[in-house]
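Morning F.,

Quick status update on the modeling queue. The single chain you submitted on Monday has been processed. Sequence for confirmation:
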Amino acid sequence: GGGSSELKPKKEYSPLEGLEARFPNATILHTLGYASGPPAYGRVLPSGLNADSLQAKALEIAAQADVVLFVGGLNKNHHQDCEGGDRLQYALPFGQPELIEALAGVNPNLGVVLVSGNAVETRWLPRVKGLMQAWYLGSEAGHILADVISGDVNPSGKLPFSFPVKLEDNAAHAFGPLSYPGDSIKQVYEEDILVGYRWHDTKGIAPQFAFGYGLSYTRFALSELSVAPQNLAAGDTIYVQGQVRNSGPVAGAEVVQVYVGKPQSRVTRAQKELRAFAKVSLAAGETKPVSLAIPVADLAYYDEAAANWRLEPGRYTLYIGTASNLIREEIAIKIQDE
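Structure tokens below.
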């Protein structure tokens, strides 16, 4: 990122350097397919390179390759992943969407490595064979990416926020300009507590990639899911148990996620909220038990009128799965009146 988050490491390994070190016997062709200007605080500087020439060279190289890896995303320039200036568009900048489409046209074996700290529009997704969210990995980024791309390391990360299909699917953009971007003096948070996946789930707006989502080089299955006890009082603890199986060919790790919702609540609440999660590492073919605990007190909401936390009695639903939109089991419990 840019601004106060910008670092100047002594040495930074690029994705190209990482791939060349990991695959010393491969023929790796490389070219710059797009360019931005140099970073500058509070202003945008244009690139001195010709965008058409860069794209033409990229297409020429891609047509010769067995596999194409496009490494792109955002950067630390003004109006990108930088403080002091919001992004001006949800799509990738610098002509990247058009370049991805063009690359897919000359070579269908296309994968995208997305380097960013934020969600981006991915309408080009049907044209690519795979998408890896790299984030900002620091000075060892190239080696880390090569480890995952090669399969030496099986990815097990989960998204910490939702990727909307389009910008208007965000809660902040559903209430007009005073909600976002504001009038430079006043900004009203009309979405209240329905931020991120809470908005998508509650309003029934499907994301491109959901909170808690993430693929692996293997496959997992949840089974024998149970909740006990199912009638509880304020001081009790909810125990969620089950089995996780790695049914694929390589070792990996899955994150079991438990969300809780209160149907017909007396206050505005999300359809469900994450209350517990556990990461389980498994060898190929292995099955392990998983157990998660949720104190009933964690289900309380803040009562603004009483200026205190309040536990609402009645029926709750536990949603057990591997992402906010990949729920494997729904189990009802009841909280007794205090």
